[in-house]
């Protein structure tokens, strides 16, 4: 019984880690976009996004603007998903997907 419980817990932890890591990548054809990829790499792999939305800037300790924050939208792709990429300072900082 104890071994069955351990196997169940390990299985749940593995499934959670797969779900978390899947949210950090986006497939474009045969390529993948991941966190920290540059804007150049994203456009090279996926083409231009359907939309780019300027969201603001990061702010430093002196209350000055530093890095541009944009949301790039791709989709719908594979099964009707939209992908939203948050670009901070020209690099991917977040990837999420939604069904319309």
Describe the structure.
With 100 residues, the protein is α+β, with helices and mostly antiparallel strands. Strands 3-4-5-6 form a 4-stranded antiparallel sheet, with no helix packed on it. A two-stranded antiparallel ribbon has the order 1-2. Strand 3 and strand 4 form a beta hairpin.
What is the fold's blueprint, element by element?
Blueprint (H helix, E strand, L loop, with lengths): L1 H21 L2 E4 L2 E4 L4 H8 L4 E9 L5 E13 L3 E8 L2 E8 L2
Antiparallel strand pairs: 1-2, 3-4, 4-5, 5-6
In whole angstroms, the N-to-C terminal distance is: 44 Å
Strand order of the largest sheet: 3-4-5-6
Extended strand count: 6
Give the overall shape. elongated
Helix run count: 2
- Provide the succession of SSEs: HEEHEEEE
Q: What is the helix fraction of residues, given as a range?
A: 25-40%
Question: Can you tell me the residue ranges where pLDDT is under 50 for at least 5 consecutive residues?
Answer: 5-10, 12-21
Structural class: alpha+beta
Whole-number average pLDDT? 83
Task: Using the CA coordinates, give the radius of gyration.
Answer: 18 Å
Biggest beta sheet attributes? 4 strands, antiparallel
- DSSP strand content: over 45%
Briefly say what this structure is.
This protein has 100 residues and is of the alpha+beta class. Helix content is 29%, strand content 46%.
């Amino acid at each position: 019984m104890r071994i069955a419980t351990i196997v169940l817990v390990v299985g749940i932890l593995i499934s959670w880690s797969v779900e978390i890591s899947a949210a950090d990548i986006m497939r474009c054809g045969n390529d993948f976009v991941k966190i920290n990829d540059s804007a150049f790499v994203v456009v090279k792999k996926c083409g231009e996004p359907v939309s780019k939305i300027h969201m603001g800037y990061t702010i430093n300790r002196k209350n000055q603007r530093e890095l541009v924050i944009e949301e790039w939208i791709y989709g719908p792709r594979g099964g009707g998903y939209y992908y939203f990429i948050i670009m901070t300072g020209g690099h991917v900082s977040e990837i999420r997907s939604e069904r319309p």
